[in-house]
Amino acid sequence: MKIAFYGSSLVSAYWNGAATYYRGLLRALAAKGYDITFYEPDVYDRQKNRDIDPPDWCRVVVYDGTVEALKQVTARAAEADIVVKASGVGFEDDLLLAEILKSARPDALKIFWDVDAPATLAELKAYPEHPLRKALAEIDMVLTYGGGDPVVEAYRQLGARQCIPVYNALDPETHHPVADDPRFAGDLGFLGNRLPDREARVEHFFLEPAASQPGQTFLLGGSGWHDKPMAPNIIYIGHVSTRDHNAFNVTPKAVLNISRASMAENGFSPATRVFEAAGAGACLITDFWEGIELFLKPNEEVLVARDGRDVTDIMAGLSRERAREIGKKALARVLAEHTYAHRAEDVDRVFRDFAAARMEAAE
Fold it and tell me: How far apart are CA 266 and CA 67, in angstroms?
């Protein structure tokens, strides 16, 4: 089956947190025989900051950030058996959705794939006339990056025919154990761009614990933090290329995951970095969110902090030996249950069940 996937970017993770998710899941689907074309706009300097070349398992079509170019690429939706519009593409999202639905064949499976469901749902609830809200009647199913039952129920109440979470996972070919790198030496590392609904939580879970532990070294990676006041024991290293994520995760004694506020409040939304860190064999400390135990076992495969004080206490009592043991167990768990190959099995089943049901209805 042919998939036309319209998303933010497959070849650039620059200001594009969904890139890891797209790459892992689409590569796994390609391995199952799907013929995939990924359409992405040339916006936000992503093409100037590519971190991978176009892969051999997926065609990548980059189009100019113009309405004319958008209409040209959406016309090609007619060639696909499965047409996907992802959230947060970054250029004329509402028009993109409308043109995709107009071009897709009547028998094609039409999907809205939401990689930030809590934020999308908040917007839909605030604006009853939102184009996506109206389009749900034409869309066959909503797939989400996470969110669990609360997101499923919210989408159904807004009119979605079907909503199915497809969680983040590990791509073992990309994220795996590597040797320590002295550039990332320290006690606790955090990697994340400065975003409005994450900044206060970063202050609470990372900056404040660092200030309270001057004898330990804290490593901060990600864009946008250059003018943020921080303790002298925090080393700010700026943007970290995806090619360095494994080393960033394994070199410090532990790494920290801090969810965006909407993700933490909703729960059941493990960030890509949870699986990146576990896949590298890192000792992960995560802020608390409902559903953690579905992915990693607290106190054995992951350490959980409900506030900044918990982070301080965990770091004060964490030996490198225990950190290595936690990382080893986390790696074993995600390899056994949470790779993108596992997720692709689920998605493939969803696609085939839908196709069979449609065929049966047509008889």
Answer: 35
